[in-house]
Design goal:
Radius of gyration: 13 Å
Number of helices: 3
Mean pLDDT: 91
Distance between the termini: 27 Å
Structural class: alpha+beta
Number of domains: 1
Strand content: 15-25%
Helix content: 10-25%
Shape: globular
Strand order of the largest sheet: 1-2-5-4-3
Largest sheet: 5 strands, antiparallel
Order of helices and strands: HHHEEEEE
Number of strands: 5
């Protein structure tokens, strides 16, 4: 039996709160409203020791479509912790959360 993927806010509540707060701070209400429902479908497979990134939508075959994709970075470059946070947004849905150079996720 396959288990349901965990929600971000259940597995890493502090990260969920910090992500939501950064999105609200940057006037990204549409993205902020998605945070509570984000599922951790798959962890990044790059094997870099500084990467804790994960997919919240099925991983694409190749690159995301350029005409439907954008990246979001916190405007003040401060997601609430040391490190980098980048979202891949496809069709205004959060598809991939890049978490780089952050202490281990809580």
């Amino acid at each position: 039996m396959e288990l349901d993927p965990p929600r971000l806010v259940d597995r890493w509540p502090k990260l969920g709160r910090q992500l939501r707060e950064a999105l609200v701070r940057d006037d990204e209400a549409g993205l902020a409203s998605q945070v509570d429902g984000l599922l951790i479908l798959e962890m990044c497979s790059c094997d870099d020791d500084f990467c804790q990134s994960f997919y919240t939508q099925p991983a694409p075959n190749g690159a995301y479509p350029a005409d439907r994709h954008r990246n979001w970075y916190p405007e003040d470059d401060q997601p609430g912790w040391n490190g980098h946070l980048i979202l891949d947004v496809v069709d205004e849905r959060i598809a991939f959360v890049e978490v780089l150079h952050r202490p281990p996720l809580d």
